[in-house]
Amino acid sequence: PAGAGGLLPHTPDRFACYLSDAGGWNARQALRCVRVGGRSGHGYRQGRITILGFLPRTVQHTDFIYCVLSESFGWRGAAVVLGLIAWLLVAVLWMGARSPHPAAWSFSVGFASLLFLQTLIHVGMSLRLVPIVGLPLPFVSYGGSFLVTSFAALGLVARYDRPLSAWSGAALAARAEAPAAPADPVHGNQPEPLSA
User: Which of 130, 128, 147 is nearest to 139 (CA)?
Assistant: First the structure.
């Protein structure tokens, strides 16, 4: 239940932790992971902070996956992941811009904005630039509902890239009003057998 001003009971504690000099345990360990990884990291599953559990294992694969990537593969590996997400954003906007569907551009801009802001907030949480709010890194973090809805939205964007004529209301109505095939006097209107 929401407390005073519609905030959850733990929300003031999170902001106080963010504004303090020391910060909370997770925030300190997340920033430490990013610093310790350096340029090229320690290697896959070789990070000391994540393996020893200083960054809690319950949040390593969700809220702080960027920290785990930074410690394992360094800032170069983390930059590659962010570059792939940027490439995906450009591809979503490009498919929305060239689609003949009237709503494609709006949907693509909305979906790309969601992915961009979520990535920005996730990386900001890892670098202690914004308070920890628990947003996953799109298509990288372990996630249930957000991952499913992101793939569904990506499927809609890919669908917008197809021609509009095949699915338009006029094309469907024309198919429905098309005259039926003449009846075969010997076999009637039997469906043709499927070929193997």
Answer: 147
